[in-house]
Amino acid sequence: MASVWHVDRDGGPVGPLSATQLKQMADEGRLKPTDRVSKDEGAWIVASAVKGLFRAPVAGDEARDQSPPPGSSLQAERSDRGADVEPAAPSRPKGLWGRLGDVVNDATVGMQAAAASARERAAKETAPPPASSASDGEPAPVKPKPKGLLDRVGDAVKDATRRAQTAADSTPDGPTKPAKPKLTRRHLWILAAVGGVGFLLLVTISLVSLVMMGREVSLARTIDLPKEQYGSVHFLPDGKRAIISSSKAIHVWDLNTGQKVRTIAKREHDFIKYACDLSADGSVALAGDRKLTLYDIESGQERWSLEAGGLAEPQADMKQALTVKGHMQTLIDGQLVSIDGVRVAPPASGADLKKLQVVHAGCTLQVWDLEARTKTREFKGPSPGLWHAAISPDGGRAALWYYDIKAVSDLPNIVNELVGSPLRIWDLKAGKELLTFAERGQGVAGCLFAPDGKRLLSRHENGDLTLWDAGTGKEVRRLTGHTGGTPLAVFSADGHRVLSGGMDKTVRLWDAETGKVLHQWNSFGDKLSALALSPKGDRAITVDGDDSKMQVWNVPKR
User: Fold this and answer.
1) How many domains does the chain have?
2) What is the DSSP letter of 418?
3) Contact 17/26 with Cβ under 8 angstroms?
4) DSSP 3-state assignment of 335?
5) Same domain for 421 and 361
6) Parallel, antiparallel, or unpaired: how do β-strands 241-246 and 249-254 relate?
7) Prediction pTM value
8) 164 lies in the same domain as 191
9) How many degrees, rounded to 5, is the angle at CA 7 between CA 135 and CA 129?
10) Out of 17, 46, 86, 225, which could bridge 21 as a Cys pair, Cβ 3.0 to 4.6 Å?
11) What angle do CA 52, 57, 61 make, to 5 degrees?
12) Alpha carbon of 172 to those of 91, 95, 179, 218: distances in Å?
């Protein structure tokens, strides 16, 4: 079957044509080497790529004699045969960059030809179609459906790709592998720059992630404690260890490994939680319930013990301590029968034993010199009630408050009603009251001095915390947010922040100067029994009394 050709030239599309007619157009000059042709509706190629279609100029008569005369049967046969062959292969295959350049050039030529053809067709749309010439045997041109610009660009790219593949397949040694592009110094500089930018981007992302992580409180470790009732916890000055007191012992724990270092003191009974305080330098701890005992932290040995009675409140340097001894009275049917557990009189005959009442008749304040281990002063405290005290850092003053316990009920069930009093400041040298705080001081469940001794922080049953001016008794600021009961609270070493934990299972770090919550997170367990803030302020400890677990937290400094 003879091949069918179509021509796309400046004068407009022509076809279909036989190979002979195509050759005749080339010989007569009506077909240019730059015109595009298509064989059997295949890809469009430039006419110069069809082997034998155009006569190549040769030098010398010998070369012309070797060519068959024009119009001869051999010339026609060669023309017909040569027009059916594939495009000639280049003498030297091009590399990857050369082929890409050909694709771009062919695409550009195709776009220009498409634009020119579109302009020419627009100019000839009003003109009548040219008449076909029967004398030269050329059929009337058939106008194919014009293609759009994108279609022509696509045909140009496909045509260039097919030409490159045909050139590679027609080499004597078979298909030639594309040459690998060589890396020049410029390429190496570009790769190094891209790699450097990527590395800097990765480092930046990592630093941003670390900064974002450093702004949140995170759990560092959970430590399982012995099954005991815990009363207090303190960081040692190195921030790596902590001392924790319970109803049975005092333990030292390594917070980095989670291992117990030593047990300092043990108790035979499980009745009263140890009231344990740590000296400012972390060398000794003072524990007391019925007596005062000083322990060496590093050796774990007892230094001395005093029969002081009552709970002790030592000053930071452990030179002085204050004990508050409450006096309890027991009444049956309104009759006083005992004072501080000592029998005064038997119940009256016929007394109603179900009407039992326990009241606190008063308290005695005792000031102790811990270095000399002697009691220096003793005086009667304020009005009756179960009084508690917090000693100032310099040991000269004490903040006192009480809960008056009223227990009246049918035995064996006794219900205690706690009635609080306002805060009071006492001069421990003179043994007298200096000032009474405002009514806001009622319902105080705990109190502590700031490290500078100028402010007081009171804890209240409704969950509030109140900052006071210790010199004037005026309220400075309220820290509200906790709910469900009295929170625990401690000052930071510099006194600028307050760490609190409430019955609502939340832990909060406050700015004591503004009252703003800096950080808030949830604690574990149902009962928070103790908490502490490290000397640097970068760690916190919470103790769950029910589950006997201690959590160590990483706290951002800002």
Assistant:
1) 4
2) E
3) no
4) strand
5) yes
6) antiparallel
7) 0.58
8) no
9) 55
10) 17
11) 110
12) 10, 17, 17, 72
